[in-house]
Design brief:
The chain has 13 helices and 10 strands. It is an alpha+beta fold and 386 residues long. The longest helix has 36 residues. Bound molecules: flavin-adenine dinucleotide (FAD). Flavin-adenine dinucleotide binds next to strand 1, strand 3 and helix 13.
Length: 386
């Protein structure tokens, strides 16, 4: 067992950290002010740097590196902001990975290289007004006829909704109950019958647009079916990697807040001395440091165990759940230690707190991860409906 990164991995992390701190801090501030996602030029710049799809095979336009390398890059960019890192999140651990793994070869060769080149962004549309944690209750239907698939229904909370160029849409293909009927279809933004609701105003995630998506008899070719009925297990396999990305984004908020507050408590003086000299402050810092380091190890374990494939539901749920919880607590403690300055929008810690909260809902709520963990531990699924 080796807890060290290789020299190449350390160099990669260092180079992304340097690039991010020299180039992206003002970009993050501007995104936070405007609420607009990263500009197309910046996304292409990420492509030129090799960050988009860094863990996708070279023949599809990626760098052919591993999931761990992707998560190293994601943490460094996520420390700048969730919105800045979001295109890298989508390209390395998002729905494009399910398309790459399970899609028809002709479709894969059109979509995946375009994502790696920064020309396309793909979002995931699973949740619906009445299907959140109970995802298998989804109602958006896909019916196949004459080489075409027709999709009807409404999706909610899609990150990238209205902005992304394509959507991996979870649908029910027949009347079988629950997961048995579920698969997913790839739909491009400008397809007839597809429309978008008003932009959501979320607590955090500024610069990651979100809205309802309406499918009114949307027709796409049958080769856009990524997995048909009965493919829910495959989709959830790919989603285990997305969970590690979610965990990394949460960790990034915590790690950045810890770095900021460590500097702050050494500068800020009260009662005639730096506030770091108070033992209560030292204890808080130590707790935050332990939480951040433990979280990173759980994420890396999930990624390394999976090698180039998808992590297990157990290790990815543990990594996500822990990262989601510690990110809320570390960013909250950092905010508190910065007093009025922590509560001010002049400093990024309040943004990190708001984003950290969101990562613990996105990709499956914290308690749902706990159900997954207990289920893997005990060795059987617990029926949430009975
Ligand atoms: C910032 C953000 C980004 C998102 N991005 C996307 C996206 O890109 N694509 C997409 O499809 N969706 C996305 N979502 C939606 C997200 O996946 C859902 O919000 C999430 O799965 C929870 O569903 P819900 O909001 O309907 O909450 P509900 O399912 O109503 O759950 C509410 C709460 O009830 C509790 N609960 C519910 N069921 C159980 C249970 N069985 N056991 C224990 N507790 C339970 C949990 O505490 C849970 O937090 C996003 C959400 C957010 C906040």
């Amino acid at each position: 067992m080796d807890f060290q990164l290789s020299e190449e991995q350390k160099e990669l992390r260092e180079s992304v950290r340097r690039y991010a701190s020299e180039r992206l801090l003002p970009v993050a501030e501007e995104i936070e002010r405007s609420g607009k996602p990263p500009a197309p030029d910046l996304v292409r710049e990420f492509a030129d740097m090799g960050y988009l799809g860094i863990n996708i095979p070279q023949e599809l336009g990626g760098q052919g590196l591993g999931n761990l390398e992707a998560l190293l890059v994601l943490e460094e960019l996520g420390r700048i902001s969730s919105a800045v890192a979001f295109p890298v999140f989508e390209s390395c651990v998002g729905p494009v990975r399910a398309i790459e793994r399970f899609g028809n070869r002709a479709l894969v060769e059109t979509v995946v290289p375009a994502v790696c080149a920064g020309e396309k962004m793909i979002a995931i549309a699973m949740s619906e007004p009445a299907a959140g944690s109970a995802l298998t209750d989804l109602k958006t239907s896909a019916s196949m006829n004459g080489g075409k698939v027709t999709i009807s229904g409404t999706k909610r909370w899609c990150s990238g909704g209205g902005h992304a160029d394509g959507y991996l849409v979870y649908c029910t293909f027949n009347d079988e109950p629950g997961a048995k009927s579920i698969g997913a279809v790839y739909v491009e933004k400008d397809t007839d019958g597809l429309s978008f609701g008003r932009p959501e105003q979320l607590m955090g995630f500024r610069g990651v647009p979100s809205c309802d998506i309406y499918f009114d008899n949307v027709q796409v070719p049958e080769l856009n079916v990524i997995v048909g009925a009965g493919g829910f297990k495959e989709l959830m396999g790919a989603f285990d990697l997305e969970r590690c990305g979610n965990a990394t984004m949460a960790l990034a908020q915590a790690a950045a807040a810890l770095a900021d507050v460590s500097a702050y408590v050494q500068e800020r003086r009260q009662f005639g001395k730096p506030i770091v000299d108070f033992q209560a402050v030292q204890l808080k810092l130590a707790e935050m440091k332990m939480q951040v380091e433990a979280s990173r190890l759980l994420i890396w374990r999930a990624a390394v165990d999976a090698e180039q494939g998808f992590p297990s539901i157990s290790s990815s749920s543990i990594a996500k759940c822990f990262a989601n919880e510690i990110a809320r607590s570390v960013t909250g403690n950092a905010l508190q230690l910065m007093g009025g300055y922590g509560y001010s929008k002049e400093f990024p810690v309040e943004r990190r707190f708001r984003d950290a909260w969101g990562w613990g809902i996105a990709g499956g709520a914290i308690d749902i991860q706990k159900v997954n963990i207990a289920s893997a531990m005990i060795g059987r699924r617990f029926n949430q409906r009975a």
